[in-house]
Records
---
Amino acid sequence: MASLIYLFLMPFSLPATPAQPNEGGEVVTVATDSWLGYTNRDGSGYYFDILKRVFPEIEWQLKIDIVPFSRVRYLVDNNRSDMALGFYSGDTAKALYSSYPVEVDTVDAAITPEMAVLWKGTESLFHKKVQALLAYRYDEFISVPMYYEESSNLLEMLNRVNRGQVDAVLDYKPVMLTLVPKLSQPRQFVIVENVFRTEIFFVFSDNDRGERLKRHFDSELKKLIDSGELDKLFRHYVGPDAKRLDSTSER
């Protein structure tokens, strides 16, 4: 089910209960999946903090639609949302990409104990059964051939790798760990980190409005980059030693 929130874009943090939109300011619709530490359902997170600074409350109202990533892609591709968060380069040909990446994303994997013993990186996925969430398209970023499938249920995928029915599930370690208590049997799989990495962008609808919003976003994001504030925001959520454009960062 979709989660709809409105952001009152205060300088630092948001209240736990989402605020109602203010009366003034241009409305911008934003579609995103929910990622721990990045787009939390209470309105906090690294990506949301970027939005707070680029679209301040006095001038803008942000209408945030939190939905599965497959729905995010549909909304922006069909101009049903002004912008969307968390896209890899080449994820969609129907949207306008921000000129600068907001981070380098690193993807982790839950793998069987047998694979963990022999793990040598993505080459170990050669002709293995690999699963991920719908529309993530991780097979486009891993060069070795895999028996790759996508599903809408991460918990069920983790149960499969836990039972040895698939070899690996690609996702993010913090998210996968939250589901461990819900597994149908004690955890057997091993999580390996930083399986691959790629730059992350925000995208905009491919029309005149999207182009205008992209120009504004690019200009304001460049200021955050040049001032060092973007790196500071990233370290706040990821860790004091994390580097925004380095492979050591992780979602």
---
Amino acid sequence: MFFGVFHLHRIWGLLDRKSYADFWIGIIEHKGWFYYLLMGFLAILCILGIKTFLKNLHHNYWWRWIYIFGGSYVLFDLFAIATGLEFWHKLILQMYDISASYWNILWILFIIMGGAVFVLGIRLLKGMHK
């Protein structure tokens, strides 16, 4: 559910492109305490999700594949940002290009993904308490 909420914050990017892009580019480029706190938290969640998937390898539910694909992507993203991979940095700068014609499409897709993950998390929590 945390990843869902995290992606839902991107609504801010639809409301105010400049402040949203400035905030995240600033976080990524300056790597202060907030960057390390957030990236560490995301990395721990991804590692725990992948560990859960592997632990239950023969009896995973369909939705646990999100742990492998989503967790692997996020870990790669964190690695690429932390190590300053040039092609990834260029890609991020293109993602946060406020004049790009694809801006709304890109961030709406992230918001939809976040909403879907959040709703899935709520449904799974409700299912646990039945």
